Amino acid sequence: MNTELIRLYWGIGATILQRQGDEGWGSNVIGRLATDLRAEFPEMKGFSPRNLAYMRAFAAAWPDERILQQAVAQLPWGHITVLLDRLDDHELRNWYAGQAAEHGWSRNVLEHQIRSAAHTRLQAAPTNFAEVLPPGDSDLAQQITKDPYVLDFLALDGDAKERHLEQALVDRIIDTLRELGEGFAFVGRQVHFDVDGDDFYVDLLFFHVEQLRYVVIELKTGRFKPEYLGQLGFYVALVDDKLRRPQHADTVGLLLVADKNDAVVRYSLAGQQTPVGVASYDLLPPGVRAALPSERDLAAALAAEVDPEHP
User: Fold this and answer.
1) Contact 184, 206 (CB under 8 A)
2) Alpha-carbon gap, residue 158 to 222, rounded angstroms
3) How many other CB atoms are found less than 10 A from the CB of residue 112?
4) Residue 66: what pLDDT?
5) Which residues does 136 contact at the CB level (< 8 Å), separation at least 6?
6) Which segments of the chain have a pLDDT < 70?
7) 20 to 30 A from 228, CA-CA: which of 93, 127, 143, 262?
8) pLDDT above 90: percentage of residues in the chain
């Protein structure tokens, strides 16, 4: 039914484009067609002038008559209107359409992924997976990473303590799982391990049900330090030994930090033998963050305030 609806809407949009080309913009093609369609099909919804304008934009964005063979045709109409409203670039529209169709994103998830620029973040975390995991498995493990993770749904400021951040992620577990990505299942927080009488606690433990692997996540609210990877690698080894079953893929670890120097991260990863990665997290939406002055701008403004003769 969805396929036929998309076919119908694309056909109406193509007709509008053709009529506007023949009659010109001042002919009110959309208004007249909306009136005619509602009179002819009074029980059908979706023929408002606004929706007809979307149909025209749809046919203009995907002018190929083989539209049904493309990923966008697998999406509900509401998803398509989001793509038309939020994105101008055709390649990006196709990318998000493909991801939404493949992963079954809801409309809200699609909007979140576009708003948080998922196309720049997926699989982007620096890791050592390629060096310590088999080739096929390393590619799969890399696919479940992002950089940065956008945690704006937590409503926390940059001074939040690690335990507060950790608790907020658990309290908003549905949003947390959505941001982590498809396939993540929550196992526990502060998961306890007894190692010959010594107690250790993993911040957050997840299981990826598609890849059949545990994912250890450690949180640090400050800037990345190389020694953090030693602790994470230790926890990965613990989970791999204590919880992993023969049918499971290798356990991987992900360190989330407030800030990082990518060059320092790369050098630090080179010395690790357990599969780990490092990603930053953002507590502000990308649009708000982009509007804020940079650290350099703030320093320059302060310097000008102190010495107005030498801005």
Assistant:
1) yes
2) 9
3) 18
4) 83
5) none
6) 24-27, 158, 285-311
7) 143
8) 65
Name the helix (H) or strand (E) containing 255.
strand 252-259
Give backbone dihedrals phi and psi of 213, rounded to 5 degrees, phi first: -145, 150
Longest dimension (CA), the chain: 83
Both tokens assigned to 107: 């409309």
pLDDT for residue 35? 84
Query: Which pLDDT score, from 0 to 100, does residue 156 have?
Result: 81
Q: List, in sequence order, the alpha helices (H) in the chain.
A: 2-23, 29-40, 49-61, 77-86, 90-103, 107-115, 118-121, 129-132, 135-143, 162-171, 173-180, 227-242, 262-270, 286-291, 295-306
For residue 152 the two structure tokens come to 């704006």
Which one-letter DSSP state was computed for residue 67?
A: G
Query: What per-residue confidence (pLDDT) applies to 198?
Result: 97
Provide the percentage of residues in the chain whose pLDDT is more than 70. Answer: 90
Residue 30: per-residue pLDDT: 79
- Cα–Cα dist 291/274, whole Å: 38
Closest of 117, 128, 125 to residue 144, by C-alpha: 125
Give the Å distances, CA to CA, from 137 to 144, 247, 250, 270, 290: 11, 13, 8, 18, 36
Residue reference for tokens 């694309």: 10
* Burial per residue of 44-54, b for 16 or more beta-carbon CB atoms within 10 angstroms, e otherwise: eebbeeebbeb
pLDDT at 68: 83
